[in-house]
From TrEMBL:
UniProt-annotated stretches for the region Disordered: 1-43
Family: Belongs to the methyltransferase superfamily. L-isoaspartyl/D-aspartyl protein methyltransferase family.
Residue stretches of biased makeup (Pro residues): 1-10
Annotated compartments: Cytoplasm
Organism listed in the record: Pseudacidovorax intermedius
UniProt biased composition (Low complexity): 16-32
Enzyme class at the top of the EC tree: transferase
Principal cellular location given in the protein's record: cytoplasm
The protein's name: Protein-L-isoaspartate O-methyltransferase
Length: 261
């Protein structure tokens, strides 16, 4: 059987030396400074983004790392200009190719769950180690993840969205974000093992490759099929005792698909 093509890193190219044999799930002490977001002047005022963050906090997002991350990333820079006025509303928006940018509350919830892995329980200010994102989309969640993780590998199967994410992220100058064009169901073993894996698409089950590429102490946050029609968030913790799985609230994501298109 022919092997599927390996994902191809295209931006930024920072894979000249191989990753270490293991990735730390979290760091000790205070986190290192997040990569600066230094894009062009915002169309929306900082006050508008601050109000979005305040609403998220009122809805129950309590992790200061997550709130700071969403406050730092200009969401309007990841949507079409005609939709910029809606960028800080808690709504998903079209980004082309029948895909959407997730609601800010969904991004915040999933990243907060990622940071709540048991290995980080006694490190409330720690940054994650390496994170693998399945489904780059327009690049927004990758930019947010860059504020809370030491390194982000983000893989997208749709060439048009991969190119859009490159364009959107380039002005932000985030050297710890690596964009990959490839089949997300295969993961990206070269960058692993990962402290966290987060998916923006859901299937009937999680691919076994993700579990293989997850570090002991790491966590997966992803949607999976629940019942006959809906999806629910699932968290998977990989411990020394084995795999622990917990099903959470209903969500609605695009289907998880294989191949490159």
């Amino acid at each position: 059987m022919p092997q599927p093509p390996r994902p191809r890193p295209t931006f930024p190219v920072t894979l000249s030396r191989p990753p270490a044999a293991a990735a730390p799930v979290g760091g000790r002490g205070r986190p290192a400074a997040a990569p600066p977001v230094s894009g062009p002047p915002s169309m929306a005022s900082d006050a508008v983004r601050a109000r979005m963050v305040q609403r998220l906090a009122a809805q129950g997002i309590a992790d200061e790392r997550v709130l700071r991350a969403l406050a730092a990333v200009p969401r309007h820079a990841f949507v079409d200009g005609a939709l910029a006025a809606q960028a800080y509303e808690d709504t998903s928006l079209p980004i082309g190719l029948a895909q959407t940018i997730s609601k800010p509350s969904v991004v915040a919830r999933m990243i907060e769950l990622l940071l709540a892995a048991p290995a980080l329980a006694d490190q409330p200010q720690a940054r994650l180690g390496r994170v693998l994102e399945i489904g780059t989309g327009c690049g927004y969640q990758a930019a947010v993840l860059a504020q809370v993780a030491r390194e982000v590998y983000s893989i997208e199967r749709l060439r048009g969205l991969h190119e859009k994410a490159r364009t959107n992220l380039r002005p932000l100058r985030l050297p710890t974000v690596h964009l990959l064009l490839g089949d997300g169901m295969q993961g990206y073993a070269v960058g692993g093992p990962y402290a966290g894996i987060i998916s923006a698409a859901g299937g009937a089950e999680l691919p076994a490759t993700w579990l293989d590429q997850l570090a002991v102490g790491g966590r997966i946050v992803a949607p999976v099929q629940s019942g006959n029609t809906g999806q629910a968030l699932v968290i998977i913790d990989k411990t020394n005792r084995g795999i622990e799985r917990r099903l959470l609230e209903a969500v609605n994501f695009v289907p998880l698909k294989s191949g490159i298109a």
